[in-house]
Amino acid sequence: MAAVPLARRGLVLVADDDPVMRVLMLEMLGQVGLDTVEAEDGEQALASFRRIQPDLVMLDVEMPGMDGLAVCRAIRQQEQHATVPIIMVTGADELASVTSAYEAGATDFVSKPINWPILGHRVLYVLRASDAISRLRLADAQHRAVMAAIPDTFFRMNRAGYYLDYEQGHEASGVFASERCVGQHLQQVLPEAIAQQMLTQVHSVLASQHVGSLDYALPQNGIARARAGEHAVAAPVRHFEARLVATGPDEVLGLVRDISERKRNEEQIRRLAYCDSLTGIPNRQAFLETLEAELRRSRKDKHKFAVLFMDLDAFKRINDTLGHDVGDHLLKAVSERLRETIRPSDLVSRTEADDSNLARLGGDEFTILIPDLERVDDALAVAQRVKDAMCRPFQLDSHEIFVTASIGISLYPDDGEDCSSLLKFADTAMYHAKNCGKNNAKMYSSSLTMQIMSHVQLEVGLRKALQNQELYLLYQPQIDVSSATIVSVEALVRWRHPERGIISPTEFIPLAEETGLIVPIGEWVLRTACQQARQWQISDDRPLRIAVNLSAKQFKDENLSQIVLSALQDSGMPAELLELELTEGTLMDDARATMQTLERLRAIGVYLAIDDFGTGYSSMSYLKRFNVSALKIDRSFITGLPQDSENAAITRAIIAMAHGLKLNVVAEGVETNEQLRMLEQCGCDMVQGYYLGHPSPPENIALMLAQRPVLDGSDDNDSGDSSVHSKFPEQH
Ligand SMILES: Nc1nc2c(ncn2[C@@H]2O[C@H](COP(=O)(O)O[C@H]3[C@@H](O)[C@H](n4cnc5c(=O)[nH]c(N)nc54)O[C@@H]3COP(=O)(O)O)[C@@H](O)[C@H]2O)c(=O)[nH]1
Questions:
Q1: 476-731 has CATH 3.20.20.450 classification
Q2: ipTM of the complex
Q3: Would the pLDDT of 6 be above 60?
Q4: Cα–Cα distance for residue pair 550/30, rounded to 1 Å
Q5: Where is the GGDEF domain (predicted)?
């Protein structure tokens, strides 16, 4: 049977000047599967080494010429062969010889007389050990390369919290030097609290054998000051993340990374996500989170808190008239004033006073959280302080701006037990405050929700009212005082609601304004009134004027003049017989735009009147500039005439002033003969009111028109009140 060749296990260079020794060595090494190359002397050995690059070298120490020690040294000098195992064959097992061998760079030695049976195994062992060492060296080099590439600081620590090793990473900002740590306990290196947390984490990692981590911050200027407690003041800090992994039953490896940059980025992102970019105060998201936290806290501690919802009154007008830059400045100034108003107060009960109790939700809406509320009155007191703060004029560049605010308040837990309800209810209360005349603060109550719901239902109904033909017009005559004849008729809209019956325009016109529905409704009124008036003009054969109320939204509608022209054309009405009634508020809203719209309407040739005069700005100079044809004295001045001397004086002054400006004057709300008499004496041109005719359906107006001079025979079908029946001419 042929011998099975042994697997080759390495190439050994054997150098000995004694041929017998060489043969024996080659034989023994061959028996354990090693390949061999022989050399007779040192020079030959060195040359062979360079040529064949053996895995191991065996050198006889004593050789003529270049001895084994010299060869060994020569090999070791070649850097790339610094690790090849070299076994020296020494003449005697004496210490000096062994020492010289190691000093020359030998890996091991074999003494003569050689124990031949174990020589091969010895060589194999040295080869294996050398291989293991090479691999260890490689692993160590790789380890070092990884360490050099990683910015983290490494340390080893035992269960008790002593640093066993500490390798500072190149991006560790030099908080600690390695010599400060090795052999030291955590508490001698880190501030007490952090050291304690780290030790807890070390124990947890050792127990679970899972990776654990810990974030902490240290003052930039060093540990000593941190330990002195100086980090409590706002010293710049660096943030670190320590990851711990168990490397044995009682030892962890820690990697510490400087995460200051990441923290800064996170803070920047947080600021962007949670700050209102215009004012710098917290935004809606931040407020919702603060509210959520407060809710949890108050629920646990059984405390009350309040949410204030503030909205500036007429902010839109400031934006529209003075521009968005001024609007933005105002919002910044408002937030600053709010900040000042709540900062020194009892609002912030937490240790760290911050701005998170205040937020801008968007537009001109701000919210304030009042924690730890003891009495409801405290919330109202804060609202009052805020209102007072808003009332002080804002000086913005060249503008002195006056604003007021409406505030709604909801309470936890009385009004709601979740954030969205509390915010919604505070908003509802704010709307209520606005409806109660602005510059107001109101508490939420559940009845407000009912009101809002019915408001919403009304809005839904109003959206369908036009297409369902639920709207209709009544007409009220305006009578010329000198001729006692009807010269004009005012169209007044009504809504016949399928469930609620007749709804007054005082209820649905503001809603139509708010929702923008006034534009289509107003157009329908205009067209219907023009058609009706044209019929009367034809049948009665006289130039009867029809008066139609225009709301602010309609007046601002850029299609207004087109709509007016089209209504006139479709009905065949002469433009001068269409009277458009505008309130002072509508005209004063945006003076420049007003002038342009008025210009367009005048160009069409319609008759323009100012309605409800005396209730708004009552500015004579504007009246002159607006160049209208008539003004209607508001009925609040006519009520109480002639006894009310103040109203009598105002009425006289308005009539005189209007005549000075060559305007016709109409007195509204004339309900008695005495009022009529007095207005006649004051020279009032026209009168309108229940005394002369209630708002009535077209057929009643047709009857009245047929009587000349006029006789009031009208019924206000919608009020049912027709108590005033008087013959105007007979009163003369
Ligand atoms: N934009 C539009 N507004 C309209 C329209 N139709 C009406 N309105 C406005 O709604 C308000 C209430 O109107 P109404 O309930 O019709 O009241 C009018 C008269 O009924 C009332 N009036 C008339 N005479 C008397 C009186 O002697 N006493 C008394 N207490 N009330 C009286 O006055 C209202 C007419 O006011 P005015 O328009 O200011 O001349 C009202 O503001 C309407 O303007 C519409 O189609 N579009």
A1: yes
A2: 0.95
A3: no
A4: 118
A5: 303-446
CATH class of 11-146: alpha beta
Distance 464 CA to ligand 1 centre (A): 23
The torsion angle over the Cα atoms of residues 20, 25, 30 and 32, rounded to 10 degrees, is 150
pTM higher than 0.80 for the full model? Answer: no
**Regarding the domain delimited by 278-444, which CATH topology (the fold level of the hierarchy) does it fall under?**
Alpha-Beta Plaits (3.30.70)
Q: Where in the chain is the domain with CATH 3.30.70.270?
A: 278-444
Helix (H, G, I), strand (E, B) or coil at 490: strand
> Where does ligand 1 bind, in terms of residues with CB under 6 Å?
476, 490, 492-493, 504-506, 509, 522, 525, 549, 551, 611-612, 632, 635, 668-671, 689-690, 695
- Kindly report the average pLDDT of the chain as a whole number: 87
pLDDT in tens, 289-308: 999 999 999 999 999 999 99
pLDDT band at 437 (very low <50, low <70, confident <90, very high): confident
- CATH for 150-264, among 3.30.450.20, 3.30.70.920, 3.40.50.1390, 3.30.300.110? 3.30.450.20
Please tell me the distance from the alpha carbon of residue 60 to that of residue 15, in angstroms, as a whole number: 6
215's tokens: 């974030």
Quote the tokens at residue 342. Answer: 């709540």
Burial of 24 (0-12, 13-18, 19+ CB in 10 A): middle
Report the separation in Å between the CA atom of 634 and the middle of ligand 1, taken as the mean of its atom positions: 11
Lowest mean per-residue pLDDT among 142-156, 293-307, 362-376, 662-676: 142-156
The segment(s) of the chain belonging to CATH 3.30.450.20 are 150-264
User: 492 CA to middle of ligand 1, Å?
Assistant: 6
In this structure, what are the phi and psi dihedrals at residue 507, rounded to the nearest 5 degrees? -90, -45
Q: Nearest Cα to 368, choosing from 399, 335, 344, 393?
A: 335
From-to residues of CATH 3.40.50.2300 in the chain: 11-146
Q: Is the dihedral of CA 19, 21, 24, 28 positive or negative?
A: negative
Token pair belonging to 384: 């009052």
Q: How far is the CA of 385 from the centre of ligand 1 (A)?
A: 39
Task: Please enumerate in sequence order all residues whose Cβ is within 8 A of that of 161, keeping only pairs 6 or more positions apart, or say none.
Answer: 185, 186, 187, 195, 198, 199, 202
User: Ligand 1, atom 21: nearest CA belongs to which residue?
Assistant: 669
